[in-house]
Amino acid sequence: MITSILEILESAKAQSQTQPHIALQKAQKALSSALSIHNDRLIAESKTCIALCQRHLGEKEAASANFLDAIADFERLGLYDMQAATLREIGVLHYYTDEPQIALQYFEKSLALREQHCPDDTKAFRQLYNSLGTAYSSVGNTILSVEYYLKSLAIAEELSDHEGAGATLNNLGHIYQGLYDRKTALEYYHKSLEKRRTCSDILGEARTLINIGGLLIEELEFEEALRHLAEAEIIIGGINAPGLEMILYAHLGLAYATTGSFTKSLSSLEKAFVMAEASGSPGAKVNVLMNFAQVYKINSDFPVAINYLLKALPIAEENSLPSVVTILDFLAQCYEQSGEFALALLYFKRFHNLSQDQKHAEKEKEIARLQIEFDIERAEKENEIYRLKNIELANAIRERDQLNAHLQANNEKLQRISDEKSEMLGIATHDLKNPLSVIGIVAKALKNNAHSITPDLITEYATDIEQTANEMFALVKNFLDINAIESGAISLKQEPVNISIIAENLVTSYSERARHKLIEIVLLAEDECFAVADPTAIVQIMDNLISNAIKYSPFEKSVFVSVNSGLDLVTFTVRDEGPGIPEQDRIRLFKKFARLSTEPTGGEHSSGLGLSIVKKLVESMNGCVYYRDNATGGACFVVELPAFTSAEIKQGAVERTFAF
After folding, report:
1. Among 300, 336, 334, 331, residue whose Cα is nearest residue 474
2. Angle, CA 434 vertex, CA 428 and CA 440 arms, to 5°
């Protein structure tokens, strides 16, 4: 009878992930048989197996109750290895329902129990170290996460455990993808795929294929991403894995949208959303809602994108999810692109404040952890100083000093960022005050004189409002641009761009504005000067330099724009006949918020951000920008970019999956 029950449980465990309904029936049959013979150990094992099936079916409360019953039974029976194993399994349950802190507590209890009662079960430690690495990654402690993953991988390699090694390599790929080291991430994913295929771990293979697909979406390699996701879809079609299916369809939704298949995109996301709601995971629901928003943003339907983001925000806030910061930033972008600049600024401020709080909180946790480690290390040194070798002591002290130096540098960086953001908000408040006052005054004049005002005066007032609003738009856009560039939210393409054509178009568009100041724009451009660059960024760079030249040139002068190419470089130059840049201002020329002593000659506005944005965009495209003296007077700015050869395209992260 006992042998029969054990065989049923073994079969049920093997099917718990891929066929949880069938496995649950087997586990319940095993429990009934165990109860009939009053075998407490088999009763507890049956409860654990039932809980595993319920976990994969998304029945959190029932699974948790059965796990806790089994844990209590194993403790009462003194079966500490099974108690530790079940503590890990309930930790996995809480991780998959967006409760990583609770998961971490169970994993730590399991580790303590194993270290005390069953320190020789190497394979169990391999699984537990992998779970601890995953949990620490979810709470933002990358250092401990990598430490545990490497411990897990070392054991797996020692035991020739290909399935375990595949799971840990997959998770290390996730870590590097989160650090935007996509080359290393892809190497780990491919190693994981090789291991998982070696041992026919089909569920693990599907998980890693989905992660590779997600990474390729970030790299804008959509056809290759769809190929990997299609492979995963074939595998998942033959098993029951709703969690993986949900992430697969979320990825497919983005990939189809970027290849123009809008209908397929929405269909995939609708499937993902149904699964996210069924999973009971707030994080999963938020991720799919954000993907909907991204798809509508790609199609320039900003009101619908905003609607999805406003649905996601309260869920993320209620559950204290890290995605709150991303949603606020996404809302600011969508409101800006839909022309609602007041709301864009509102959400940008919320994003700024929360991201600062998050960075400080993470740093405080790291400081506390390092302090605890330092105190323990110091106590151990005091008690065992004579036992330690001199070389070990020297290494420990050096590592501690390096950590402290690294921490100090990070704190200084955080303070500098905080100061810059405070300065940016101060400037925004100051610079928006006057244009808002102008709009208010003009609007009041229109209101009070509605019956007597002439059409010509209405046109004049409307022109004033339009010009003032354009100034405000330019200011807010500069703030959002500089923030997006520094946070890495802007992804620049690298493709062949004809600089001459863009220069010609901009000179034509600025000719009318220049005529208001009786300024002539002279274009000297070679035909077809191709650089490796992002076309949108090039327009922004040229627009800034040409508009500055007009802004600071006296009336009745000339502005000279030239484009020429060499063997390796394409050079774009803008020269004016204005006062030039005084020597004392040149050191601050490309810094943020730099207000120089030279003033615009026609009363134009300047935010002090334009040249800073130019420098960051140019350098992001492997180019350089600099100022040089003009022999005939005036200012001369030079941009040098790589001539067309080839390019690598990169973009930000999408959702990835862990493997336990």
Report:
1. 336
2. 120
> Alpha-carbon distance 57 to 207, whole Å?
18
Neighbours of 585 (CB within 10 A): 15
Binning pLDDT at 50, 70 and 90, where does residue 289 land?
very high
Give the per-residue SS3 of 18-84: CCHHHHHHHHHHHHHHHHHCCCHHHHHHHHHHHHHHHHHCCCHHHHHHHHHHHHHHHHHHCCHHHHH
Averaged pLDDT, 382-397: 50
List the single range of 325-329, 521-525, 594-598, 600-604 with lowest mean pLDDT: 594-598
> DSSP readout, 415-445?
HHHHHHHHHHHHHHHHHHHHHHHHHHHHHHH
Give the max Cα distance, the chain: 104
Give 654's contacts (C-beta < 8 A, 6+ positions apart): 214, 217, 218, 251, 254
Closest CA to 578 of 627, 632, 510: 632
* Separation of alpha carbons 469 and 435, rounded Å: 7
| Beta carbons of 522 and 561 less than 8 angstroms apart | yes
Residues 26-54: tens digit of each pLDDT: 999 999 999 988 999 999 999 999 999 99
Q: CA gyration radius for the chain?
A: 31
Amino acid at 347: Y
Q: How far apart are CA 209 and CA 166, in angstroms?
A: 12
Which one has a higher pLDDT value, 660 or 256? 256
Helix (H, G, I), strand (E, B) or coil at 565: strand
Element (DSSP H or E) covering residue 498: strand 495-498
Contact call for residues 308 and 292 (beta carbons, < 8 A) = yes
The Cα angle at residue 248 between residues 152 and 261, in degrees rounded to 5 = 150
The rounded distance, in Å, linking the Cα atoms of 499 and 510 is 16
How far is the CA of 338 from the CAs of 306, 341, 491, 585, in angstroms? 10, 8, 20, 37
The identity of residue 157, as a single letter, is E
**CB contact at 8 A, 352 and 315:** no
Residue 634, phi-psi category: left (phi > 0), alpha (psi -120 to 50), beta (remainder) = left
* Helices of type H across 488-498: none
Indicate the angle between helix axes 323-337 and 341-384, nearest 10 degrees. Answer: 160
Specify the DSSP element, H or E, that contains 5: helix 2-15
Neighbours of 523 (CB within 10 A): 16
d(Cα 225, Cα 462) in Å, to the nearest integer?
A: 50
Residue 379 to residue 384: CA distance in whole angstroms:
9
Q: Which pair of structure tokens corresponds to residue 415? A: 């303070």
288 vs 295: CA distance, rounded Å: 11
Residue 569: strand pairing partners? 642
Helix (H) / strand (E) containing 532: strand 530-533
Average pLDDT over residues 120-147: 86
Nearest Cα neighbor of 652 from 289, 333, 322, 177 is 177
Token pair of 210, please? 């989905």
Q: Is 340 left (phi over 0), alpha (psi -120 to 50) or beta?
A: beta
Distance from CA of residue 130 to its chain's centroid? 23
Place of tokens 């995971």: 281
Amino acid at 546: I
What SS3 class is residue 564?
strand
Terminal-residue alpha carbon distance, the chain: 33
Q: What is the pLDDT of residues 95-132, one digit of tens each?
A: 888 788 899 999 999 999 999 998 888 889 998 998 99
